[in-house]
Design a protein that fits this description.
- The chain is an alpha/beta fold.
- Helix content is 32%, strand content 18%.
- The chain contains 13 helices and 14 strands.
- It has helices at 21-29, 65-68, 73-89, 112-123, 135-139, 143-152, 167-180, 198-206, 245-250, 279-292, 310-324, 337-340, 347-361; strands at 6-14, 36-37, 50-51, 101-106, 158-161, 186-193, 236-244, 257-266, 301-303, 332-334, 363-364, 389-390, 395-402, 406-413.
- It has a ten-stranded mixed sheet with strand order 5-4-6-7-1-8-14-13-9-10, with helices on both faces. The protein has a two-stranded antiparallel sheet with strand order 2-3. It has a two-stranded antiparallel sheet with strand order 11-12.
- The longest helix is centred in the first third of the chain and has 17 residues, at 73-89.
- The chain is globular.
Length: 417
């Protein structure tokens, strides 16, 4: 069977460093940090008192107030980012066959704030089971793609992928495969997360996963730096319109890039720690290269998982050296989490967008906050430290890895007719 080609025709972003694609890209290139003291709740007693929250965002600027109240923040974010991507794609919603338009969305946690608040309200009461009637539909992760499809009448495949921090990359790869096989013409995909909450911050602190650099939040996310001490929790959403190439071409769509493949693997090692030699990461990148039909030396840029954890960063870079050999030093490697923080289930989407825009503009955003070299990291690797670098990118990859050992890698290519 001849697989169909798949392209990206629309983008949307809602991030801690920009509330749309234009703002997001400008901040990425300029090395802007999204980290600041938490404003959503009193974090005075928490080990970590900062996060990468959205700035100047009000859901009711985009969603009718009555409807917004029925949604957890993660679903609100999904609606806003997907709407931007749909508009950006130029799709004529009156003409397309909506039976062949799907929504596949990623979320690692879903409505955590809704769950937290409902449980706290019950615990503070007299034991009577008084719950909001929207408690369950606000909480479940699959409500985000459900709401997107309901708003626009998209009747194709519709579900959520959950693989912790790899969730939205899994959604991208599932979407790619549905389109390749001819089951759909268009799929709205991406991911959203809103875990900057009492439960989210408290839970990750209990795992010792978060940075505690409270005296300098803006420098806390420092992937590959010798003094990194954990990731910075972020929130937001990224959306991509994936479309079968001939369908996009027939309607004269602008095309950002071709999605040429994806890889999946499992560490099969530990609940939260990566394999020290990056065995699962080696496997996922090899799988992606094979699935994409490209060689290691074809890759120009890798947006890494690069969370700023002591173990994870070293393991990923070891894996890159193992897969790409001598060519590894010719690749522009970066971690945009140094600016956005870690958006958990939305990370794969916003980082894929960063890789696509780097390809489009010929500029690789920097890995900011790097001050001290880690002796465990190969100094020959180009980690795009602190300043953006111009680069003609023909092939870019995006890595995302989740608790439980879930690994996903997506590859993009400049379009060639």
């Amino acid at each position: 069977m001849q697989l169909k080609r798949v392209v990206v025709t629309g983008l949307g972003a809602l991030t801690p460093i920009g509330n749309n694609i234009e703002e997001y890209w400008k901040a990425l290139v300029n090395g802007v940090s999204g980290a600041a003291p938490v404003t959503y709740y009193d974090a005075a007693k928490f080990k970590t008192r900062f996060a990468c929250e959205l700035k100047n965002f009000n859901a009711t600027d985009f969603i009718e107030r009555k409807e917004a109240r029925k949604m957890d923040r993660f679903a609100q974010y999904a609606m806003v980012a997907s709407d931007e991507a749909i508009v950006d794609s130029g799709l004529d919603l009156e003409k397309i066959n909506k039976l062949r338009v799907g929504v596949i969305w990623g979320a690692g946690i879903g409505g955590l704030e809704t769950f937290q608040n409902e449980v706290l309200n019950f615990a503070s009461g007299d034991g009577s089971p008084r719950f909001n009637p929207f408690f369950i539909p606000k909480m479940i992760a699959d409500i985000a793609p459900g709401l997107i499809s309901i708003k626009h009448g998209f009747m194709g495949p519709n579900y959520a992928t959950v693989s912790a921090c790899a969730s939205s990359s899994n959604a991208l790869i599932d979407s790619l495969n549905y389109l390749r096989l001819g089951y759909s013409d268009v799929i709205v995909t991406g991911g959203s997360e809103a875990a900057v909450t009492i439960a989210g911050m408290g839970g990750f602190n209990a795992m010792h996963a978060l940075s505690t650099r409270n005296e300098s939040p803006e420098t806390a996310s420092r992937p590959f730096d010798a003094e990194r001490d954990g990731f910075v929790l972020g929130e937001g959403a990224g959306a991509l319109i994936l479309e079968e190439y001939e369908h996009a071409k027939a309607r004269g769509a602008k095309i950002y890039a071709e999605v040429i493949g994806g890889g999946l693997s499992s560490d099969a090692y530990h609940m939260t720690a990566p394999h020290p030699e990056g065995m699962g990461v080696i496997a996922v990148m090899k799988n992606c290269l094979e699935n994409s039909g490209i060689n290691p030396e074809d890759v120009d840029h890798i947006n890494t998982h690069g969370t700023s954890t002591p173990l994870g960063d070293v393991a990923e870079l070891k894996a890159i050296s193992a897969v790409f050999g001598d060519h590894a030093k010719n690749i522009n490697i970066n971690s945009t989490k140094s600016m956005t923080g870690h958006l958990l289930g939305a990370a794969g989407a916003i980082e894929s967008i960063a890789a696509i825009l780097a390809m489009k503009h010929g500029i690789v955003p920097p890995t900011i906050n790097h001050q001290n070299r880690d002796e465990n990291i190969n100094p020959e690797l180009n980690l795009t430290l602190n300043v953006a670098q111009k680069r003609d990118i023909k092939v870019a990859m995006s890595n995302t890895f989740g608790f439980g050992g879930h690994n996903a890698c997506v590859a993009f290519k400049k379009l060639e007719d």
